[in-house]
Target: GGDEF-domain containing protein
Amino acid sequence: FTLETELRKAIELDRLELYFQPLIDMSNGFVTGFEALARWKDPDYGMISPVEFIPVAEECGLILPLGRWALDRACQVLNEWDAKAGEVLPLKVSVNVSAAQFARDDIPSMVANILRANKTKPERLCLELTESVVVSDPARAAKVMSALRALNVSLAMDDFGTGYSNLAYLQQLPIDVLKIDRSFISDMLKERDKVAIVRAILSLASALGMETTAEGIETLEISQTLAALGCSFGQGYFYSPPVPADEAYAYMITRM
Ligand code: G
Ligand code: G
Ligand code: MN
Ligand code: NA
Model:
């Protein structure tokens, strides 16, 4: 048993599942979209966390087929939800893109092809990138991000505040949303410094014309504080953990 062999098999046999965690509009409490998160339930070994298999996938190149699968599956699920609702739902799905995927020069055409194959409007897709994609080659990152943005998909900077944030570059990148890392959010009301950091990120985003998503909201109090501070979107166990597509649909349909 190696994780790599088993993961290759799981991708080929379509044994991965995409879960969805709601993104909430903090100004009215409605669902505006979902973050798609990969899950691997092995028939023998049980649930294997993405924290374990994503780094393996990145090392052995499997992140490319896995990333394509996640994008494709996210578009399929949007279509399934629209069909069920009998209308085009006003929802965005956010899909994580790893540094190894972003390093490929064909990423814009890969994304365009998947959107076209599923007849998905690009406005309904957000790609979540981490700060690491910028650090290694900022000039290239700016180019690739512009090419992606030109497709009319939106771009979010994931885990913002934990990496090496070059603020000069941030201003030049076509980023739509900063996702404030959950390490600043989950226990923010217990530590004054964290509230100060969150305020600073919110005001930075506002100055740069970007929206904000707070990750890791676990309590009503924190959701109310963030709404009062003007954070655009919220995500976390307080609303819902990541759940299978059917459960996500049931959650959303009563909250939009
Ligand atoms: O739910 P959580 O345990 O789902 O996810 C753990 C980590 O795995 C997160 O950092 C998340 O971004 C990452 N992850 C989950 N699904 C995917 C995916 O489809 N692609 C990539 N690149 N990362 C993912
Ligand atoms: O790194 P990224 O932000 O893409 O991954 C999201 C991760 O955060 C997933 O592992 C998801 O399960 C987890 N997550 C989502 N909401 C919460 C929350 O409210 N609290 C905690 N501790 N983790 C969360
Ligand atoms: Mn993410
Ligand atoms: Na994150």
Observations:
- Residues 7 and 53 are 8 Å apart (CA to CA).
- The pocket of sodium ion (ligand 4) is lined by residues 158-159, 179, 181, 215 (CB under 6 Å).
